[in-house]
Amino acid sequence: MTLIDGGPQVRLRSGTDRPYDDAISAARTCYSPRVIDPDEITEKQRENIGPLTFDGGHHTVYQHATFEFALSGISRQLVWSFLHGFPFYNTEQQSQRYVKLDEVTAHVPPVLRGEARAIYEASVERSWRAYSELTERLKPVTQQILSDLWRLEERQNKAFGRSVRREAEKKAIETARYVIPIACHTAMVYTVSGLVLHRLRRMAHVGDVPREAADVVSRMVAEVVKLDPDFFRRVGDEALEVDKVPEGRFAAAGPGDPMAAEIFDKSLDGRIARLIDYSARGPEVVASAVRNVLGRVDLDDETAIAFVLDPAKNPYRLEKLNVSTHAPLMRTLAHVHYTFRKKLSHTADSQDQRHRTVPGSRPLLSRTVPLHVDVVEPELIREDPACHTVFQESVEDAWDTRARLLELGVEPELALYVLPNALAVRFEESGTLLDLLHKWTMRTCLNAQREIWQASMDEVEQVAAVHPQLTEKIGPPCFVRTRLAKPRCTEGSHFCGVPVWRSFPDIKRVI
Fold first, then answer.
1. What is the pLDDT of residues 263-287, one digit of tens each?
2. pTM: predicted TM-score of the whole model, two decimal places
3. Which of the four CATH numbers 3.40.80.10, 1.10.10.10, 3.40.1110.10, 3.30.1360.170 does domain 9-98+183-250 have?
4. Which of 200, 423, 430, 458 falls 20 to 30 Å from 294 in CA-CA distance?
5. Kind of pairing, strands 185-193 and 90-93?
């Protein structure tokens, strides 16, 4: 196996034709009896109105422009740390759960030279060999579990048997991916507004991937400059200098303090996610808000809560399209808030953070990951001795490589790239009931990634303990829709094969 890194590729798939004039015309519309079109903008207005609005903080006019990028050859760490580290984007990313990684493609920091580069590349190649071995070892394990779950022997159906084998391979690569390094390349369609692109340029040096982020963002900006040079030439700020970034000045020197990780883990009390704060009067506040929205002072709390959360009474709960923020009744759930302390693997959290309206304060890994192995090991691997050995040797090798790179003087954020997807991430995450409701509906489904499913089940269980009135009708789509809407399961051919709706939340997950 030979590591391949052709560097990042950035291409503008589509974008607003004249984003700068578009922004100026939007600004002029605010003071006009009619809508102003971009064709009406004069040179004087470009010169005056653009800087006046931008420097004055009137930035919404730059949000109308939209840019859709094709990004490839970028690291998973860049995506987790920077491109997905905030709410205002849309993306469709290549999935390691369903796409087998046949080639060794990963980010190699261009500044690495000599021995450090050789050590780095060799480590990445070894991790891929471990991934391949784990995939092959896990296939019979996952196939046996699925065969038992779906009673394959009883069915005697060849077509169904082929389907089970394909699904078993997916489960195998989904689990084996935990040893792949966070330097692994990914590809995506990434869409942002003009305002967000300005912010990305400004904040490129913030976080754990300053070099890679600055490189990719500069390429994105260059693509837009080809379209309209004025959009960045006339307004905007260059990237914050590295020494001006407060996280860099205030954070620990690194590597991470093992005691801090131990204290955090003890505080979880054996859970993946632990409820640490919530709106104490949540049910009463929701009921009051429902009465005020509907103008129904006659409603008692139980009835008011049922109007918004009971799918038998509120058809919005049965929608496949999430329309909650558009519904006055559903917006009553925005007044209740929950905060969780969580520990997930890097790969699981990369999916968890896609729930952008449930934000988390994620750590600077270059300053918090300890020198000893610190991972989340998948249950399927842990319970198979041969797989566990391969996994353990691979993650230990990754940590040894990181330590050697640090000894050679490699910067902490660059040495971090060799660590695996299994790397433990500890953080706090908060959301309103409105936003968590959507997340829990999607992630308590058995098709959800295992760690996120378990975290969501932990969260629902704890919220039910403090606010049982609000959680009685919370669960996966099949549970919410049963006897009320068809199809019961919204996953179509991806139905998990388990009648979850009969016993939720008392579900034992086997794979």
1. 999 999 999 999 999 999 999 999 9
2. 0.95
3. 3.30.1360.170
4. 430
5. antiparallel
